[in-house]
Amino acid sequence: MMRPLTVSSLHTYPIKSCKGLNHAAISLDRKGMVGDRRLLIVDEHGRFLTQRELPAMVHIAATFTAEGMRLEAPAMPPLELLLTDIPDADHALMNVVIWQDSIEAVSQGRAAAEWLRTFLNVSCQLVAMERNVRRIVDQTYAPRPDDETSFADGFPLLLISEASLDDLNSRLQTRGEQPIPMNRFRPNIVVSGCEAFAEDRWKQLRIGGIVFNVVKPCGRCIITTTDQETGVRGKEPIATLKTYRKNSDGTKILFGQNLIHHFDHKFATDGSQPLPVLRVGDVVEVVA
After folding, report:
1. What angle do CA 223, 225, 230 make, to 5 degrees?
2. Shortest CA distance to 229 belongs to which of 55, 52, 90, 75?
3. In 3-state terms, what secondary structure has residue 183?
4. Which of the four pLDDT bands, split at 50, 70 and 90, describes residue 270?
């Protein structure tokens, strides 16, 4: 008898491209998982920075506290921040660019900027989306015109199956390479109980009573070649994925699926209704 298809792990990344957090349960709001990629590091021109340019970002750990956020990194003193999405005299409103989107964001202050500059050795700032900003998902893929996301690359959620990683690791070992952990791919939802790349065929899911549209395969980049513990960059898994996971025209390497969740906006305003929750162990129903 086959195992049921279930959620095996849940992950968020408080600052885009920095260290992730694991969760037994996590709420969803209109932008995705609560606390996921709600902060962004930008350069002096307001353009987003990631591990693509700065592999050392793997070492930055950000955890939410009752007061705001705590930043930690090797050889750096921890920094406690009061987060805000409302501009004031100490938190400037600025325009930032992430891919093709230009967004109003709020600087998290001079102390955060100096701490990051010292560790990353670049002039940069930490920003949060301004409270009223809505970053609408690419309408080519969005099921609804009001679907939105945070500072993720393009979609609120990324799903990968354990079986797909097992398949990749088997191929890596056949080529004499070391297996890699799931964190190379920085998913939000990991599922178990299906065959490798079954997620490529899914169109709609229901998990914990929440409906998700499976909207677009995830094109993978150089970040997957960066060890998420050491920051050391190699050639895998891209070299192996190129042998069997290219798209039809050979321009993208695909691994994982982007999801957009159905969110009832009555949850987003007065807080009178509890936010929907995903839990490790939730059964995943393939609706279509």
Report:
1. 90
2. 55
3. helix
4. low
Residue 244 neighbours by CB under 8 Å, 6+ apart: 171
Asked if residues 106 and 81 have their Cβ atoms less than 8 Å apart, the reply is no
The alpha carbon dihedral of 225, 227, 232, 236 has a sign of: negative
**What would the mean pLDDT of 74-96 be, rounded to a whole number?**
96
Helix runs in 157-254, H state only: 162-174, 238-241
Task: Report whether 158 contacts 255 (CB < 8 A).
Answer: no
Residue 163 · residue 174 · CB < 8 Å: no
pLDDT averaged over every residue in the chain: 95
Q: Which amino acid belongs to residue 218?
A: C
- Residues 6 or more apart whose Cβ sits within 8 Å of residue 232: 55, 226
pTM of the predicted model, to two decimals? Answer: 0.95
131: helix, coil or strand? coil
Burial class, 69, CB count within 10 angstroms (exposed 0-12 / middle 13-18 / buried 19+): buried
Spatial distance between the Cα atoms of 84 and 284, rounded to a whole number of angstroms: 35
Tokens of 28: 């969803």
Q: Which residues, in sequence order, are bridge partners of residue 106?
A: 93, 128
The 10s digit of each residue's pLDDT in 234-252 is: 999 999 999 999 998 989 9
Q: What is the model's pLDDT at position 209? A: 93
